[in-house]
Design a protein that fits this description.
Length: about 450
């Protein structure tokens, strides 16, 4: 295949994509398959000779779409959305064609400088102070790992990177049970250890108790441990919990600890000023992460980490051998020094296209609709005999259940096997509950309210 072939097949692919999205409502949201159904359709060994692109594309069309869970389906209400607005798709096509490696400024100046501007556009959109800067990661997991590694090194006066962790004091990181599992992964990968992630008790609103945080820090110091940092939750994955950000940051500040705020999902909603009370005080954090690829329409992967001062993270993650230096340009930003990977994709391009193609007002309208429709759906489900709302809407996320775990789990299986909508589960205070998360970029009120119709049919 050459570039002339690519030109023709790119047009074919665009036509295929248009047809795919135009017919998504006619497809079941989740593929009704069993494990191995796709792999059995693929040859067990790679081809020795080149094959015509016609055959490759035909096999793709025959095998792949029927084996997908359709994340862009307008009745996808599971997990959190991984949206791909049309403008973002177009930008990704261009980024793929350019295939730039943006590891340092000189390898693609536009990649670095567009990223700098897009991060600042988003800072303004979320109402964060002018002092914040930041970078784009692949996902919030990597951003949180970067923050935790920086906490580790700052607590150890950067001796961990130099000497290793053997013989160092026992570090402690503090978070609530409502934080995402990426925090657990971060303390493991950072060498701090799962047992040193202190899960601080929460109150009746599922917010971390500031007094309990202060007590845990004091107790650890008395025991000879070394507190390193606090991770706060702004829109938890399970049921959308929010910590009392300002109060908890005040405790961390009193104890000299840095704070990372995980707002991976809910951060997007902060482009709407009326929702910012949910993370009031966030400007006091050292690090904040949110995912435009969840609720702003930017295609995965695109996770933005804001930093009040990037110097500690650069000192932790930066490594500049001679071959990565830019002669005569010591003042330039090299974003690989802010992140874990050396290689970097042109992720900022899809932000540039998406923010311009829809505007903040267009994106705000979508988020406001999702929040409103979520509340309407929760009210409609509450009217169905046997259904109870377990946790009310936190922005656009709520949970419901039947009389017991077995009945709730059986209902969820029927819903997802039915295929009209897709929902997922979690456990809340020990009980099995069904999550509903409204956020797909092109869903309508009718799509959202169809969940109630499905539940009525299948309960």
């Amino acid at each position: 295949m050459n570039h002339d072939d690519l030109r023709d097949w790119s047009k074919r692919a665009a036509d295929w994509a248009h047809g795919y999205h135009a017919t998504l409502r006619d497809k079941p949201v989740r593929a009704p398959l069993i494990p191995g159904a796709i792999s059995r359709q693929l040859p067990p060994a790679p081809p020795e000779a080149a094959e015509p692109i016609e055959a490759i594309f035909a096999d793709f069309d025959r095998i792949v779409p029927p084996g997908l869970t359709h994340w862009q389906h307008p009745r996808f209400f599971a997990y959190f959305p991984a949206n791909a607005a049309p403008a973002s798709m177009l930008a990704e096509q261009l980024a793929n064609a350019i295939a730039a490696q943006g590891m340092i400024w000189q390898t693609s100046p536009a990649v670095t400088e567009v990223e700098q501007v897009m991060v600042d556009w988003l800072r303004q959109a979320l109402g964060l102070p002018a002092g914040f800067t930041g970078t784009i990661h692949d996902s919030a997991t990597t951003a949180t790992l970067s923050a935790v590694l920086t906490m580790r090194e700052a607590a150890l006066d950067w001796a961990g990177n130099r000497d290793g962790l053997s013989g160092q004091p026992r570090l402690r990181i503090y978070a609530s049970a409502e934080t995402h599992s990426s925090v657990d992964k971060a303390v493991r990968v950072a060498g701090i250890g799962q047992e040193n992630l202190v899960k601080v008790p929460t109150d009746m609103t599922l917010s971390m108790k500031p007094g309990a945080l202060a007590g845990a820090i004091a107790a650890d110091r008395a025991a000879g441990y070394l507190p390193a940092g606090v991770v706060l939750c702004a829109g938890g994955t399970s049921v959308g919990a929010f910590d009392r950000i300002a109060d908890c940051i005040a405790v961390a500040r009193a104890h000299g600890l840095p704070v990372h705020v995980d707002a991976a999902w809910a951060g997007s909603a902060m482009i709407c000023p009326e929702f910012r009370d949910l993370w009031a005080g966030v400007e006091g954090a050292e690090s904040i992460v949110f995912n435009p690829h969840k609720w702003l329409g930017a295609q995965f992967d695109c996770s933005v980490q804001f930093l009040a001062n990037p110097a500690p993270q650069i000192r932790t993650l930066g490594l500049r051998p001679t071959y990565l230096q830019t002669a005569g340009r010591e003042e330039v930003v090299n974003f690989n020094e802010w992140t874990v990977p050396l290689g970097r994709r042109f992720r900022a391009l899809k932000l540039w296209f998406t923010l311009r193609a829809y505007g903040l007002e267009g994106l705000r309208a979508r988020i406001r609709n999702h929040v409103t429709w979520s509340r309407e759906l929760a009210a409609a489900l509450a009217q169905i005999p046997g259904v109870r709302i377990v946790t009310g809407p936190a922005l656009s996320l709520f949970t419901f259940a039947l009389e017991d775990d077995a009945a709730t789990e059986a209902l969820l299986s029927r819903i997802n096997d039915d295929g009209r909508v897709y929902l997922t589960q979690t456990r809340h205070q020990g009980a099995y509950v069904i999550r509903v998360q409204v956020g797909q970029f092109d869903c309508t009120r009718d799509d959202v309210m169809s969940v109630a119709e499905v539940v009525k049919d299948l309960i």
